[in-house]
Amino acid sequence: MSGYNVAVSFYEGKVDSITYNPIKEIVGRISDSEIERLLKINAGGRKWKKTSDQYDITQVKWQTEDGELIAVYAISFRRVTVATKGYNDRAPDGRKAEDLGEFFFELGD
Predict the structure, then answer these.
(1) DSSP single-letter state for residue 62
(2) pLDDT averaged over the chain?
(3) Which is it for the CA torsion 72, 20, 88, 66, positive or negative?
(4) Mean predicted confidence (pLDDT) in 4-28
(5) pTM of the complete model beyond 0.85
(6) What number is the average pLDDT over the span 102-106?
(7) Based on the structure, what is the number of domains in the chain?
């Protein structure tokens, strides 16, 4: 796995979301194998299923089978965000999982 800047948010003392942003020296998209690794290390033993529309060229989305975690790979920003269902439910302005990538980039930029 290549180097990443990592942003972590907490809610009531527990990790609520994690965003992985490749260091600037990395060019191109995050490889599928790296995305799979990031999902696996954040799954807590859960299995992920892809939930994004096959025609969506802006992002790829996943959810764990139990629905407790969501993940978004924002392709143009090359960032992977993993968040709890609770984070998604508390998202400002009614934003949901499909907006996670955009939300984190606004906060981080």
Answers:
(1) E
(2) 82
(3) positive
(4) 86
(5) no
(6) 42
(7) 1
Nearest to 70 by CA among 87, 53, 57: 87
- CB distance 62 to 50 below 8 Å: yes
Residue with tokens 């949901």: 96
Can you list the alpha helix ranges (DSSP code H) found in the chain? Answer: 32-42, 85-90, 100-108
The position carrying tokens 């609520």 is: 16
> 43 — phi, psi (to 5°)?
-80, -20
> Tokens in use for 106?
């606004």
Q: Which domain holds residue 96?
A: 4-108
CATH assignment at residue 38:
3.30.160
DSSP designation for 32: H
Cβ distance 18 to 6 under 8 Å? yes
**Cβ atoms within 10 A of the Cβ of 74, count?**
22
Give kind and range of the element (H or E) at residue 73: strand 69-74
